[in-house]
Amino acid sequence: MGQCFESLRENKEDRISLQSQNKVSIQEKVYDNYRNNFTTQMSVVQVEELTQKIDISHFKLLKTLGKGACGKVLLVKKRNNNTQYAMKIVSKEKVKEEYIRTERFILEHIKHPFITKLHYAFQSNSKLYLVMDFCQGGELFFHLRRAYKFSEEQSKFYICEIIVALEYLHKNNILYRDLKPENILICQDGHIKLIDFGLSKILTTIKTRSHSVVGTPEYLAPEIYQDDGQGHDEQCDWWSLGALLYEMLTGTAPFYNVDRTLMFRNRLEKPLDLKPWLSEECKSLLQGLLNNDASQRLDVNQIKSHQFFKDIDWIGVAYKSLEPPIKIEFNGPLDLSNFNRMFVDEPATDSPISFKEGKKIENFSFDEDQP
């Protein structure tokens, strides 16, 4: 739920009107096409007619896990079965309707071991609620900051699982567009899950180009913010993967500068600072991923066959055969030692984000299980 970088520069495809009920928006046409052609390893959620709808009263609010500009995430427990979940609460006044609709739609239809699962979705007059997997290991960001940097072998484990998740998204015509340590969670078994699909893009084909300027500055591919009219495709996610790998290995994002304008300029004009402790295979991979020319950047097949991954069984990765490098010990189901104490110590309520009432997003409610 970190900050995102946006621009007012959007093309016609991105200026979507959700207010007109007489016209079907371009995005809705994409959704319809996506639903009708959902054939690649997707699990379509079967929604039963329920006599009682899920709402906030069906959950006990336990702890605050994190907060952002648009809302927060709580640890909650379902009252009828004591199952723990992470509940994302978003203000309707603070977030673009397109973003939350996209996230809900993707999570409703995606099923993958390295992507968080949506269990319930509902809304009140002022807020939207997404109830997802609770990953007790916390954010990769937390562990990276505590260690400062990872070894190549540690980094390789996380990067391999992320590659498998991104490849799955791309095969289903989805650009992720917000890969960063805060959006990678560590589960109880030490494996990862990607979260936060608000900035993702559903395309008609994976080679369709998008012109939205969204993402997190430190991990943003150059073609996303360059004003050349070319747009971007799935290659933008591989640049972000390179930026993430670089940060894991060095402790900071490539070309980082507190002055964002200077950071973007450095990204285009300065050579990549390849640290002396990196192996030649690792340097080669980073250069291939962080190539500013998207047409020359490594694609998924070149990445998986790269010498850096020569010992990796990619089928085994998908079945979680790799041994997690971080062993996390838990002192019970409410052990939140892998979360920021600043948030965990706050009361777990949904009341602090109080906004204007009356806004309704159509077709948001979704219930997977009976209350």
Low confidence ranges: 1-51, 352-361
Largest beta sheet: strand ordering: 2-3-4-6-5-12
Q: Give the full name of the CATH homologous superfamily of the largest domain.
A: Transferase(Phosphotransferase) domain 1
CA-CA gap between termini? 27 Å
The global form is globular
Specify the helix fraction band. 25-40%
Please identify the structural class as seen in this structure. alpha+beta
CATH classification, class level of the largest domain: Mainly Alpha
What is the count of DSSP helices, taking H or I runs of 4+ residues?
A: 11
Number of self-contained structural domains: 2
**Any idea what the radius of gyration is?**
20 Å
In total, the number of strands is: 12
In this structure, how is the largest beta sheet organized?
Answer: 6 strands, antiparallel
Strand content: 5-15%
Report the mean per-residue pLDDT as an integer: 82
- H/E element sequence: EHEEEHEEHHEEEEEHHHHHHHE
Can you tell me the CATH architecture of the largest domain? Orthogonal Bundle
